[in-house]
From TrEMBL:
<dbReference type="InterPro" id="IPR050256">
    <property type="entry name" value="Glycosyltransferase_2"/>
</dbReference>
<protein>
    <submittedName>
        <fullName>Glycosyl transferase, family 2</fullName>
        <ecNumber>2.4.1.-</ecNumber>
    </submittedName>
</protein>
<dbReference type="GO" id="GO:0009103">
    <property type="term" value="P:lipopolysaccharide biosynthetic process"/>
</dbReference>
<dbReference type="Pfam" id="PF00535">
    <property type="entry name" value="Glycos_transf_2"/>
</dbReference>
<keyword id="KW-0472">Membrane</keyword>
<feature type="transmembrane region" description="Helical">
    <location>
        <begin position="262"/>
        <end position="283"/>
    </location>
</feature>
<feature type="domain" description="Glycosyltransferase 2-like">
    <location>
        <begin position="8"/>
        <end position="164"/>
    </location>
</feature>
<feature type="transmembrane region" description="Helical">
    <location>
        <begin position="227"/>
        <end position="250"/>
    </location>
</feature>
<dbReference type="InterPro" id="IPR029044">
    <property type="entry name" value="Nucleotide-diphossugar_trans"/>
</dbReference>
<keyword id="KW-0808">Transferase</keyword>
<keyword id="KW-1133">Transmembrane helix</keyword>
<keyword id="KW-0328">Glycosyltransferase</keyword>
<dbReference type="InterPro" id="IPR001173">
    <property type="entry name" value="Glyco_trans_2-like"/>
</dbReference>
<keyword id="KW-0448">Lipopolysaccharide biosynthesis</keyword>
<keyword id="KW-1003">Cell membrane</keyword>
<dbReference type="GO" id="GO:0005886">
    <property type="term" value="C:plasma membrane"/>
</dbReference>
<dbReference type="GO" id="GO:0099621">
    <property type="term" value="F:undecaprenyl-phosphate 4-deoxy-4-formamido-L-arabinose transferase activity"/>
</dbReference>
Amino acid sequence: MIDKMKISICIPVYNGAATIALLVEEVKEKLNEYELEIILINDGSKDNSEDVCVDISKKYDFVKFIALRKNFGEHNAVLCGLNYITGDYCVIIDDDFQNPPSEIIALIEESKKGYDVVYSKYEEKKHHWFRNLGSKFNDSVATWLLNKPKGLYLSSFKLIKKEVVDEIIKYKGPFPYIDGLILRVTDNIGVRTVEHSKREEGESNYTLSKLISLWLNMFVNFSIKPLRIATVVGVTISLCSFILGIVFIIEKLIHPDTSMGWTSLMVSILFLSGIQLVFLGIIGEYLGKQYLDQNGTPSAVVKKEYL
């Protein structure tokens, strides 16, 4: 029955003081037929988002607010918020109104087909071209690294069943990637086409450095394929070097006066040195993140709770 279904809305907030109150009001209006719970997570905003969220949580008893001590990143904030949800389904939505709250109902309707997770899909994305380019690159890499279905777009606007949320929050490392955690748990995933609106306030908080950081989290923390690539490339280069070595020896025996080229030697040294440094860097990323994990680096630190 619809009146027995509880929907939790998880909203990471970063510099969203101008929009978050309106977003909560519209979510409340559009989902008035459901038992509603909203979790706001302030991810170290530089504006007065925290004060606005405190006022909202005091105004509505169905709104929970968690303030983080600094900016940990969107995925860290979302993982923190997922620990507080109690609904049958959780919907993750950004604070910028680019996903109209009315589209939450579309995701709920799609979930009734029995899916564990429902991702949104857009006919036309209204993000900045740079953000769209980064998303396409991230999507292509995820297809290869995480065995993501090719037709699935990993949107931040999605619905997750409570049983799946319970598995996701078992992750205790400092570098969460929500979509990677979802794909670890289930492949029973649906897709629903929804509207994507133009940003009305401010600019996207995704900078080049944040996109690279997100990509590295996926690249290193959720797959060992980069290490396998290093092994395959190393074996391939060794095999090619062995074959070339035999060729050079035969060439020298047939033509004793042939002098080996200095240019080819330097190119080979520089190429192999570059390959070694790249793979040492990849290994260093794995070791560094493992070191931080073993040191107990938190994914987020809660400063205040208004429950």
